[in-house]
Amino acid sequence: MNNLTHRIAVEYEKPSAFNSCSTEQAWASVPSEPNAVEREELISKIKAQLIEKNAVLVSHYYVHPDLQDLAEATGGLVSDSLEMARFGRDHPAQTLVVAGVRFMGESAKILSPEKRVLVPEMDANCSLDLGCPAEEFTQFCDEHPDRTVVVYANTSAAVKARADWMVTSSIALKVVAHLKEQGKKILWAPDRHLGSYIQRETGADMLMWQGACIVHDEFKAIELDALKKQYPQAKVLVHPESPASVVKLADAVGSTSAILKAARDMKADTFIVATDNGMMHKLRQQNPDKTFIEAPTAGQSATCKSCAHCPWMAMNDLRNVLKVLEQAGTGYNEIQIDEHIRARAKLPIDRMLDFAQQVGITSKPNVDSAITQGLGPA
Ligand code: SF4
């Protein structure tokens, strides 16, 4: 840490295999904004480094707008986690710089083992990943051998390696419905809100790991309802990692990509949005004539988590993207996954992709059905 960053404490829930849950503390070191001159210098150096290192920048919708714009300006991508990994796999660049959180770097490496995958901050975590450690999750799975293990994309490579299926986007409902038809009982991890949503929709027998996203878990239904009354014409867009009481108030429920599509397609001028406020950049960029309002997080139990912005996503900035590029080839912030785990972690992803082909739906996240089905990666 230096004077360009400030360190903040972040509390998250860590469930255990024995149905208990503890509150743990992690941290994030959030960079300060560069001044205008430094910002321009950083951008031009990064552009030169991307060319020199045969690298491409892929950014998540929740990272700083500078990194979103730079990814697009240099031939990279701004998207959700699965699309970031898939784009990286299919792009000719041999080095991928993944601006997001660590599991996104791991997903890119699982799909592109031959490429160098760099992350600006190795300590950029995720409460879903932190709250589902592989060892305890394995124990949980071992205690329920009769259940098919289905995990969401927001998990470590080691947790994916213990899974039978990885699901994301519109395919999650179809996979769970398919497993239910086969008489399978499911063990779901790690997000309890998303899992409950799938359970309500499919009626499947699902045993849940009780993880939660620290950002989406903070949205408050009572305050959202009050805001809706203040803006009666507004449509409410909700990410399904939010509590059920918030999802219930939505006009459209879906992943980041689905929220973007809903904002473009729905006939409304004003939207209330319940997801990380990093999304506001792309929403406003794509819809300059529409108004976007952040859904309320600050209920009576408001804490420092209630800012609607992921502190780990906020760790990415121009300075650490430049640094990781300058040090490419030295091993600095390079994602490494044990080959046995990587190969095993790829199986549940391949199973999902094969199933998608069998049932005739694209393996690419389908934003139309993601809206109606309310699913998708963060
Ligand atoms: S917003 Fe939530 S799900 Fe996304 S990386 Fe942050 S903690 Fe994880």
UniProtKB/TrEMBL annotation:
Pathway of action: Cofactor biosynthesis; NAD(+) biosynthesis; quinolinate from iminoaspartate: step 1/1
Enzyme class: transferase
Entry EC number(s): 2.5.1.72
Catalytic activity reported: iminosuccinate + dihydroxyacetone phosphate = quinolinate + phosphate + 2 H2O + H(+)
Coiled-coil region: none
Keyword Glycosyltransferase found: no
Any single Gene Ontology cellular-component annotation: cytosol
GO MF: 4 iron, 4 sulfur cluster binding; metal ion binding; quinolinate synthetase A activity
The protein's role, per its UniProt record: Catalyzes the condensation of iminoaspartate with dihydroxyacetone phosphate to form quinolinate.
Protein known as: Quinolinate synthase
